[in-house]
Structure formats: C-alpha cells, structure tokens
Amino acid sequence: MKIIIFGLGNFGMSLAVNLTETGNEVIGIDNKMDKVNIVKDKISHAICMDATNEQAYKALPIKDADIAVIAIGENEGAAIIATAVVKKLTNAKIIGRSLSPIHDTVLNAMGIENIIHPEQDFADRLAKKINLKGIVDNFNIDKNYSISELKAGPEFAGKTLEELNFQEKFTLRVITILRRKVRKTILGTTNFVQQSEGFVDKNTVIEEGDILVVFGLNKDVGKFCSRR
Fold it and tell me: Which SUPFAM superfamilies does the protein's record reference (predicted)?
C-alpha cells in the first residue's frame, strides 16, 4: 500500500519505519528537517513540508495514497488543519491522531472514523502488563473484547488444546501460538525470535515457553492471568 504519514515524532517515525519494513511504500512528512534526515534512509520517501499549507500538497501524490495518517503530536491546531486539507484532497482512508477530547470532537465532526490515541493506548496496555501476571501484550477490540498474548503455564506443556479443554475452561479462543525459534543471521551468529505457528486446532500441542494469542472478554483474560 501507499501510505503518507504526516508528523515524524516518536510515534509517526516508528509507524513509518515499521510499515516500510512490512512492505509498504511510505512517504513521511514533517516540517522539521532534522526529523526528515533521521528517517530518510529508512522509509521510501521523507519530505520536509508544512502540512498546513495546502499549496505544498501539489508536490505530493496525495490522490494516489491508500492511507493518510495524521500523526502530528505537538500542535493540535496544525493536526486539525492538516486533516482538513487531506480530507479535501483525497479519498484515501484517513487515520487521525487525537491529542485531546476536543480534538476527538473535531475529528468526529469532520467525519474521521479512524481515530487513535497512542499515548493512552500504550498506558492502558502497560497497566494491563503490570496488573495482570502472565500477560505479554494486549490489543483492545472494544471496551469488552481484546486480543491478548498470554504465557502458557508449565502445566500446559506437552498437552493438546483438546486435552486442556482450553476454550471451554477459560472461555478464550486461541488464534495462534508464538513460539521461540533459533534464527541464524547473515553474520553466522544466532539469535531467538518469536514466530507464529499459524492457525491452530484441537490437536495443536503446547510447548514450554509458548505464548498463546487469544481472543475473548477482558474479564476472562483477567481470570486466566490470576488463576494461580
């Protein structure tokens, strides 16, 4: 996909690099040349531009973009103006970063359906990691449901999901399993990576150290983590 990201702060820059590494064509925009210089060799294109200046967009392939992310995090006014300009110039899916409840209201009024709150989301995920023993990571689907990465207990090792009666016992559906694998680097050294085992079924055997990626109610995730 062709993705344009406006704002190359910590969030915007990380997003741009990650999307590039996963095969997307990413154009990063910022009004500060030092940020552009940091990321220019890591993404497809990096441009120093004032996103509030509509005339500057003439140099951008904005109409060809699949997704436009307004990731500006230092200036709420600039973020709102940039969103308005992008919405005027393209039919691309727009993802807006909100900096405050009023910003939420403005984006909703503009018809922006995809609104993100990186700092709040990170804080919520970190709080769950701290409060729920055994949780590795968590992504909220809505206020009730989430996809969570949970450490498989040692008592699960060597047993199938059917033998564990996992879904019925914990009311959580296992989507996949992340398993630690040894990978050899181009330098000949080895390191460890977490690799998905793909789709699982009732005959899938859990190994020691596995991470279970599950879907279910937040309250059931909490019960799983506090079972011991």
Answer: NAD(P)-binding Rossmann-fold domains (SSF51735), TrkA C-terminal domain-like (SSF116726)
